[in-house]
Amino acid sequence: MPGIIQESPFKTITVKELHPTFAAEVSGVNFQDVSEEQFAEIVAAMAKYGVCVFRDTGMDDAAHVRFSERFGELDNIRRYLAGGRKPRYDLYELFDAGNIDGDTGAILDPECPRSHSNRGNGLFHADSSFNPRRASFSLLRACELPPPGNGGNTDFADSRTAFDELPDDLRAELLSHDYVGAHSMAHSRKLGSPAFFADVDPTTSAPMQRHRVLQRHEPSGRLNLYVGAHLHHIEENGKEIPGSWELVQRLNAHAAQKKYTTTVPWYQPGDMVIWDNRCVLHRAGGGTFEGRFKRDLRRTTVHDDSPTAWGCNSKDVAWQGFNGQAKPKHAGAVGV
User: Fold this and answer.
1) What would the pLDDT profile of 155-188 be if each residue is shown by its tens digit?
2) d(CA 287, CA 58)
3) 313 phi and psi, to 5 degrees?
4) Cα separation of 281 and 13, whole Å?
5) DSSP string, 249-292
6) SS3 249
């Protein structure tokens, strides 16, 4: 039952389940000195729950990055710094998931290009599915939060159980076909703010990256729907299948049903949520904080090192970065 501290094989951590099928709040971690035994138990908890919440970690930026490196090789923001753009943080491994203008320190105007781009983050997605090499874990830490009651929570969806409970016809279709999803960041940006990005064509903005729709989540051995808002269309044998968009919409709608989702509220700076993009989807929750209060969240992203990390993509392909040739109205938006 969610909310109950579960009996478990864990010796160094305590787990409180947040949902009947996934997600847990983990306590008892000493983030100033995480032993190998305790780290192994955190990894085991991630395999089972897909999302783990840690309160009041006491981490700063450097500690956040050091802890993240224990999970594997980290992605970085260097490819987004073209055209004289400057990083907000000293550490390139930190991605800005907040609503703060990096140049002025002020709250982003909700109508600026970056805010429109960020609206795509309000749709369920898997981080980095638009990259040739997908992500495994994301580690998101709160640094400054809106006052309570103003929103800004983070929602998660259990894409493993969503596969388990597919309608029989759809389950049979996925199991009998080798469907490959084509992913695009421009596509999710356009879905998030269709009027602002009306003239963006995801098929020409950057090469799409391809990952199989149905994948086995190796840490748990369970099958997973690898879908989300970056998924533009579905192919088989290199060609888009008939009814592709209808299938994309059906799969995403199925995985986003309320019974598969849970909401994680942020309580104080230092809270951290870790999730596995290979078995859950997530989205940024909106609220009345937008345009009024700062929401400073910082994320590290771990490159997947499983056999399916690169999907159907070449390891030599260029990774999409900041588009310095974007149209003036889109200047500052990421992914178009």
Assistant:
1) 999 999 999 999 999 999 999 999 999 999 999 9
2) 26
3) -105, 155
4) 25
5) HHHHHHHTSGGGEEEE---STT-EEEEETTTEEEEE---TTTTT
6) helix
